[in-house]
Structure formats: C-alpha cells, structure tokens
Amino acid sequence: xxxxxxxxxxKISFAGKTVIKxxxxxxxxxxxxxxxxxxxxxxxxxxxxxxxLYRADGGKLLIDGKPFDQNSNIKVGYLPEExxxxxxxSVIDTMTYFARLRGIKNPKAWSLAYLERVGLTDHAKTxxxxxxxxxxxxxxxxxxxxxxxxxxxxDEPTKGFDPVxxxxxxxxxxxxxxKGCTIILITHYMDEVERFCDRILLLKDGTAKAYGTLNEVRxxxxxxxxxxxxxxxxxxxxxx
Amino acid sequence: MKTFQVVRFExxxxxxxxxxxxxxxxxxxxxxxxxxxxxxTSYNAGEDLTSGSDTTALRLGLCDEAEYVRQYSFIxxxxxxxxxxxxxxxxxxxxxxxxxxxxxxxxxxxxxAEQPTVEIHVKNGEAGLFDNYSAPITALLTAEAQSRVEPIxxxxxxxxxxxxxxxxxxxxxxVVDMNETVSRMIAPIAAIVLFYIILVLLGNRLTVxxxxxxxxRISELLLTSIKPINLIIGKTISLMILGIIQIAVILIPAFVxxxxxxxxxxxxxxxITLDAASVTISLALLLCSYFMFTAFSMLVGTISSTARxxxxxxxxxxxxxxxPIIFLNxxxxxxxxxxxxxxxxxxxxxxxxxxxxxxxGNLATWEMIVGIAEVFIVAILVLRLAAYIFCxxxxxxxxxxxxxxxxxxxxxxxxx
Lengths: 240, 416
Known about the structure:
Number of strands of chain B: 8
Number of helices of chain B: 16
Distance between the termini of chain A: 32 Å
Helix content of chain B: 55-70%
Shape of chain B: elongated
Strand order of the largest sheet of chain B: 4-1-5-6
Distance between the termini of chain B: 36 Å
Largest interface: A-B, 38 and 28 residues
Order of helices and strands of chain B: HHEEEEHEEHHEEHHHHHHHHHHH
Shape of chain A: globular
Strand order of the largest sheet of chain A: 5-6-7-3-8-9
Largest sheet of chain A: 6 strands, mixed
Oligomer: heterodimer
Number of strands of chain A: 9
CATH architecture of one domain in chain A: 3-Layer(aba) Sandwich
C-alpha cells in the first residue's frame, strides 16, 4: 500500500518546551493506524499540526504529498478530542450545514438517512442542547463521517461514549475501513487497538517508542499484548 | 461556495431568532408610537384653541359681571356659530343648571381683571363630552381679547411670529435658507442615528459571532471543512446583511409614517428635498462604517476565548467609536479643532467623526473621499488580521490572549 500520510522530522515546542522531537512516520492508504501514548505525549498536537491548526517548528506533515487543504480532493473526517456543536441549533440544521461545507449532494437527505440509522429521526428538529450526551455524540459522529471521508481521524472517540454508541462507532469504523478509508485512531483503550489497528505508533515525550505492525511491535518488545508494552514503556505507575 | 454556505447558515439562524425581530422592530414601534402620541396631542391641542370639543348639543350660558365679553357666540367644532345665552346673575345661572335649562353655566366675576378666574358649572358632567368645558369660554374670551388689541400686538404676544433666516457664506454670495439647511442635514443625521441604533442592537451579536465556535468547541470540527478566512468572510457578509435588514426595518416604517404625517399636515412647514448626492454619501458612510465596526468586532471575537472576554474588549471598542460624540464641540465649529481632525482619521472613531462633520457641513469633498476610503481599507485590513489571528487562536478554548506571542510566533497552542 502507498503512503497517504507522511510525517518527516516533525518538531514543535510550546513556550520553550519541546513537545515533539524529530518525529517521523507514515500511514498507508486504507490502513487503521493507532496513535498511542499517555496524556500530554503529543498525539493530539501531531494531529492538529497535520490538519494545519498548529504550525510545526520543523519537518513536514503531508497528506497525499501536500500540506492539508480544506479544499483538497482528499476528504478528511475529524472527531476531535475537544468536541461540541452549535447548542442553540437543531440537529438537522447543524448536520445540513456541515454537509454543505463538505460538498455533499442532497445534504438534508444524507443527514436524515444518518439520523434514521442511529435512531434520531424524531429528534431531527430538536435543538442540540436538548439532546442527551449520547445523542450529541451520535450527531458529532455523523458530522465526522459525512461524505465517506478518505481519511478518518478519531481522537479518543469512545471517551464518554455509552456502550450503545461505542458499538455504533465500532460498526462505522469497520464499515468505512471496508470501503478503503484510512483511519487514525487515537485511544487509550488497548483492546480497541488490538481489535482494529494494522499498525501503531507509540509516543513518549515527543518521540516514537514503538512503531510498526502489531506483530512487529509485539516481537520487538517480547510481549504478547500491546497493553503490556504500553505499561513497560510508561511504567506501571502511569495513569492510562 | 463554502463562504456562501456560512452566509446562508448564519443568516437563516439569526433570522429565525425572535430576539432579532424583537430588536429589529423595537425602534420602528417606538417611532410609530411616538408619532401617534404627538399627532394625537397636537390634534387635541388644536381643538382646544379653536372651538373646543363637540359642544353643538350643549346649552351654554354666561353671566359676565365684569362686562368683558361683548359677543355671545363662537365657532364650534362643526365650524358653525354657536350662541351662548346671556344670564343676568350668578343665581339665575345656577337655577338654570338646577332646573335643567342649561348644560353648562359660566360665571365671570366683577373683579375678573384682578383675578382672572371663570367658574364653570356643568349639569350631568359625564354627558358624552371630553372633559373640556373650558373650550367655549376660552374661545369667547380669546376672541374678545383679540378684538381689543391691534392684530399685530396679539400675534406678538401669542408668539406666532414667522422667522425667515438667511445665511451667507464667507464670500457673501451664496444664500442658504432654512429649508436648504434642513435638507442638507437630514440624510447625515439619519445616517448617524441608524449607525448608533445598529451598534446598540447588533453590537453584542457582532462581538460574540467569532467566540461561539470556540465556546462550543466546534472550531476543530469546522476548520477541517472550511478555511478560517472563508469562515470570517462568510460571517462578516451575513452580519452586514443583518445590519441592512435592520436599517430597512427602520427606514421603511419611518418613510410610511413620514408620508402619513405629511398627508395630515403634521410636519413643520418646510420644503425639504433630499438630494441624491447627500443620500448617497450618507449611505456610503453608513455602510462603510458598519463594515469597519463589524471587522473590528470580528477581531475582538478572534482574540477572545469566551463571550465574556469579547464583551470586555467590545466595551473599549464602543468607547473609541463614540469618542466623537463625547467631544462634540471639536466638530461643531466652522473648522474642526485639532482633536476633531485626529478623531476623523483615527480608525475606530472615524465613522462617527466623519458623519458629524458631514452634519455640521465642515467636511470637504476630498476629506469625505479620503475618509470613506480609509474606513473601507482599514476594515479589510482588520478582517485579514482577524483571519490571521483566528488561524492561531481558533482552538484556544480557555486561555487569555498573549498578543506578543499571537502576532509574533508561529501558530501554536496558547494554553501553556
């Protein structure tokens, strides 16, 4: 498989403190890539820089050979760690707005079809603020996967999800992966990593501690599970 | 295309809000209510002075022991001459009221010249009249007073003199009459009033327009779909359109009220003609001013993390904007003071300063052109600066702004 995302010698620091040091990795087209590490290790920073929200101090972060561009042909769906919605707007208006921004034909029809799939048809005209947390998560997920993205970036996607929504998310990941979508999964749940990821990158203090397919990483660390490797790298006292 | 989607979304959701229409219609409703009250009051006042309320059906009597009144009739509301019965004594009058021979009896005592009081005795006072029984006797006494002095003396005492003022310019050859002055000032005054109303009604909406995405944590989701500059331009256009709707909501009823008032002769007797140049210049100034204020509000929104922060900065912006009103004297003379010139070209205060000078007639054409160009160019630069900052501050959800880092360093997270 060809590389769709390429990060080369990426460096970034905040207030004189280096967060990422010479990080290099690539993500192949169509794979599920796990970006792992403890809180503050630079996972979200790497993604934000890849998406142009931060500017790197050095190195290159490319999607299909170019810096990220909202108007590119490569469609990116991003479920950020810090996620919210227009609280005062209705579900259908919010979804239709994002669908239009993503250039989806028949944005309302797409949105209604998704709402039907996730059981929110009756809430289409409900204001977001009136929805439960779980319902809001479904709407956020819908916005993220709009228009069958070529790249799906999920930053701690199951954080705060109830079991029903977690199941839904898993189904969607499998479905999109089957369609050839490249998925970056940032998670603290190693069972998700074991289940879904083709390759992983484990970060600590802004550097890559483990990188490769699950088997390559397991073999390198002589461990049977990624969870054990994580604990080895961060130490048993780390709060994961 | 994406910019258009932002415009559409922002417009529709604002126009769907009852609060927008409540604010939009508040000014015209107040305007219409004010005009109606003034019209009603002046209509009644007019009746008081002429013939009073409808007294046609009333039997009126007067006992004038001072022998001041000589003619016992007046012109009533139906513009007919109505007689007032002459009563010999006060007791006769009271008896006539008691015996239902009179509806209203007026008594003028012998010492009326020293103590000008008229007693009014009314039978069945609630009998379908406004509480206005003084109108007939007022009409009689006024007519009598008028007949006793030279007409010109009465006019002077009544303050009914007409004034015709003629002004000359420095070269003593250009005559500006009152009508011309009012005609020249009306569009600039309307522009400054509308600008102020928009600031009051839409100011908060403008300020929080760029903080909403940050407060609701939507920025990241949004910025993977649209470039910051497109988002800002879209929001600016939608806010401009909202402002224009606000202006239309005020101007259309104002025009209707003007036409009605004109038809009923409720307006001062002035020949006001709005010349196209004055209206065009005032409109251009108004739109450019609103554009610049919107741009500054966008900037305020981008450097703030929350609406509360934004409102603090917006207060400073508002004060800078209305500085020319605080220093009104700097503009009112034939030539503005140095402070007046400074405020004319200081971007945040330039809109109102230019409008004031346009009202006072001391803004030369070249200054007008330079001023409007400055306001427009500054608005575009501020908008670009807002987009630049938004790129760097869009995911700063809680942090206080650090201007040095923001303008000097590459795009990074500021919550260190």
